[in-house]
Specification:
Layout: H1 2-15, H2 27-44, E1 56-59, H3 65-73, E2 80-84, H4 87-96, E3 102-105, E4 118-124, H5 133-146, E5 147-158, H6 173-179, E6 184-192, H7 194-199, H8 204-207, E7 214-222
Parallel strand pairs: 1-2, 1-4, 2-3, 4-5
Antiparallel strand pairs: 5-7, 6-7
């Protein structure tokens, strides 16, 4: 089963000590994070309404870092939902987040999130860890179903394969479009190739000026508003 294989792949990463690679104390990591945050805030600044009124859910919320960022943006704890497959990460999120944040365990494709209830649905490097096309499709369909008309998926993932890591695969923009065929897309290339960023963190800004060295895409996928059907004129 793909969900079990995902858990096994994450366990292998943990055994290799890869968690330290993502510490915000590392210079390449905070530069990646700051770049992505700036791009995301630009995209979200075009959204209607006030953040305090938005409702958001995250697929693969991990230890809760992205949900904490949404709280800093002004979203209310009771308006946030995190979904996480791995129990240790879910426990870390529960310890870090306000009690009012709703956290759900298990398969995101069957998560208890009401249809048309969310203004934003986020995923960050989750789909690149799902190697089964069918599960990718089911999770994407659930994410789309949860969105209100006019809501948006916030997508962040890498686009190219890593030949040294068979546990992940890149998700090109064409695949993202196939997963959300009804969406209106705004895409940005971000994030300097991590091996290069780790090797030369002091030169992150310089190398990141070259678009083809950026390996990830940040995408806002907007769900069209329901069409307004005019009332029949009185006869």
């Amino acid at each position: 089963m793909e969900l079990e294989r995902i858990a096994q792949r994450y366990a292998r990463r943990a055994a290799r000590g890869e968690g330290d690679r993502y510490s915000l104390l590392r210079p390449e990591v905070w530069q990646m994070w700051q770049e992505r945050q700036r791009a995301l805030l630009r995209l979200l600044s075009t959204r209607a309404g006030q953040p305090a009124d938005w409702r958001a859910a995250e697929v693969g919320c991990g230890a809760g870092g992205n949900l904490l960022d949404l709280l800093r943006l002004g979203l209310m704890p009771a308006h946030l939902t995190g979904i996480e497959l791995l129990p240790d990460r879910l426990a870390a999120a529960r310890a870090a987040l306000p009690e009012a944040v709703r956290l759900l365990a298990g398969d995101a494709s069957t998560a208890d999130v009401a249809p048309a209830s969310q203004d934003l649905v986020l995923q960050s490097t989750v789909f690149s860890s799902i190697l089964d096309d069918g599960l990718q499709q089911r999770v994407a369909e659930s994410m789309w179903r949860w969105l209100k008309p006019g809501g948006a998926v916030v997508w962040y993932d890498f686009t190219v394969n890593n030949p040294r890591n068979p546990d992940v695969r890149g998700v090109p923009l064409a695949r993202v479009r196939a997963l959300f065929p009804q969406g209106d897309f705004t895409a940005r290339r971000v994030t300097l190739a991590p091996p290069l960023a780790r090797a030369l963190p002091a030169a992150y800004g310089l190398f990141n000026l070259v678009p083809w060295l950026r390996t990830h895409r940040l995408v806002l996928i907007e769900k069209p508003q329901d069409p307004v059907i005019p009332e029949n004129p009185a006869r």
